[in-house]
Design a protein that fits this description.
Blueprint: H1 8-13, H2 34-43, H3 46-51, H4 53-67, E1 71-73, H5 80-85, E2 88-92, E3 96-100, H6 119-131, E4 137-143, H7 145-154, H8 162-170, H9 172-196, E5 200-205, H10 213-234, E6 240-244, H11 251-258, E7 262-264, H12 271-277, E8 284-288, H13 290-295, H14 298-310, E9 316-320, H15 330-342
Parallel strand pairs: 1-4, 4-5, 5-6, 6-7, 7-8, 8-9
Antiparallel strand pairs: 2-3
Amino acid sequence: MTSTAFKPLLETLNGANLEQRPVWLMRQAGRYLPEYRALRADKGGFLNLVYDTDAAAEITIQPIRRFGFDGAILFSDILIVPYAMGQNLEFLAGEGPRLSPRLLDQALEGLVAVPERLEPIYSTVAKVKAALAPETTLMGFAGSPWTVATYMVAGEGSRDHHETRALAYRDPGMFSAIVDAIGAVTVEYLCGQVDAGAEGLQLFDSWSGSLAPAEFERWVIEPNAWITSEMKRRHPHIPVIGFPKGAGEKLVAYAEGTGVDAIGIDETIDPVWAARALPSGLPVQGNLDPLLLLSGGAELDQQARRILEIFADRPHVFNLGHGIGQFTPIAHVEQLLRTVREWRP
């Protein structure tokens, strides 16, 4: 049965301009929480946590239990998709994720897909959905094809993604095949999350800011438009948030070209410009600087209220411009929540 409880986050993503803004924070489940650190110390590495569905569900719920956010975001990683496509995935302490064989050395056709690697993620979603209060929206997610491709091609993250960008220029046919393959698996992955209980979705394009305008159109807007269209065809009631970090002024073209239901804006975007330039009535999400949350103090309250006031005339989900930092004090998160909860237009 579908819950009839009022869900502020879901209502906002569907276009309602609520007096009290819903709030959740990217990376709200993670290293800044002592309960997360204790669980990780007990369970081991990051990938072990992701694939222990009881642990992953507990981690997803921890910030809801502590703070009462309006949305719970699935605890997982964007690189689960290439892992299911047949690359090996490991997280090295102090170095970040590694994928092998990298697609600079191995043709895409040489990968042997392992779709069963997605199944535990669906189990996590189902367990979280069963445990959440009915008013809390469960958010699923995936990485967008461009961002996922940067890791698949190079095998790791990089500062300017030069190897992936060069491949896209040098052999656009080959790179298009990579992007298309990622997109196809991503749609199936997101549908699996929805079938398991996800009520909204976010597409993370964390590295979209490294692309020139024409390449942004080809490798960010077009693939995300296709994914959004497919999700609308299969699950028309599920809102999709697009988050093209670093898009800058290309954010408008992204909003108009992808068909997403809401758009996440990072901390480098002037909210005054965004409120004026983005399509009227389009829900927005963001965009407090995570470093301001780390710093706290009166400036945190002032800037949070400023963002709330600027977006007062459209649906707005309060969030950060990117993920919450590892060393963010719990007291600062509590301070921010008080400010957001108390604000009224």
